[in-house]
Design goal:
Length: 233
């Protein structure tokens, strides 16, 4: 730990579970109420834009009813107190890392509170429904879609993420099932480049055997304890 200079952290739905947001693959999770291909693909959007816009309007609205938990706050503390470089990458489209105090979060799967205009391709901060086809704040076309990465689309800022993974001393994966690539492959990328790798998850993920170390339990307990360890060392 004494040599620790560069950390990359990847978070997934599990870090927001204790805040009350369903994970994707849990019983009662989002994919169980809707087929993935209906609400999380460009084809689904073309087929039934009302369903898709309504689905994300509902998820955006639900953010107002949840709060960050001790895991989000612990990572924000690490961001502000860690002396080295830290890249916090999340697959989550919620804003709980930011509301927990994190200043710099890379949302590789986009954000509920952002709109992407399919006419001018500009992304704008967004905190209102889209179902009634509001105009794009930039070009005024009624062509907004949620700025979330759907299946078949390229996650954001992959070059920056891979550059950090290859330089990292430590890669930590928190609350993610390891079922969705490219994020599921980050552990191998980091490990091949020489990083130590740690999983913090409620249960063994699909890729748990790729990690040097895995700790299993709720993120609200594991993450603050790990942050304490890093800052205390
Ligand atoms: P998943 O729902 O696939 O996995 C969530 C993981 O969190 C599981 O391994 C759970 O065991 C774990 N978990 C649940 N509660 C937890 C807790 N309290 N503390 C710690 N861990 C807990 O969610 P993701 O891995 O984030 O992509 O899913 C990855 C991507 O799949 C999502 O970003 C989304 C989805 O398709 C897109 O929409 C592109």
């Amino acid at each position: 730990m004494a040599q620790l200079e560069r950390i990359v952290i990847l978070t997934g739905a599990g870090i927001s579970a204790e805040s009350g947001i369903d994970t994707f693959r849990s019983a009662g999770g989002l994919w169980e109420q809707h087929k993935v291909e209906d609400v999380a693909t460009p084809e689904g959007f073309m087929r039934d834009p009302d369903l898709v816009l309504g689905f994300y309007d509902m998820r955006r609205e639900a953010l107002a009813k949840v709060d960050p938990n001790p895991a989000h706050r612990a990572l924000a503390r690490l961001e502000s107190e860690f002396d080295g470089e830290l890249l916090l990458v999340t697959q989550n489209v919620d804003d709980l890392h930011e509301r927990g105090g994190a200043k710099s979060v890379l949302h590789m799967h986009g954000e509920l509170k952002s709109a992407l205009c399919t006419a001018c391709e500009v992304r704008s901060p967004w905190d209102a429904p889209m179902g009634d086809r509001p105009p794009c704040p930039v070009c005024q076309a009624p062509s907004l879609r949620p700025d979330v990465v759907w299946f078949g689309e390229m996650p954001y800022q992959m070059e920056r993420i891979y550059a950090s993974l290859t330089r990292a001393d430590l890669f930590v994966s928190i609350g993610t099932s390891g079922a969705v690539y490219p994020a599921a492959g980050f552990v191998q990328e980091a490990r091949m480049a020489g990083a130590r790798t740690l999983e913090l998850n409620l249960e063994p993920s699909e890729g748990t055997h790729f990690f040097h170390e895995a700790r299993h339990g709720p993120a609200g307990e594991l993450v603050p304890a790990w942050v304490e360890e890093v800052l205390g060392s």
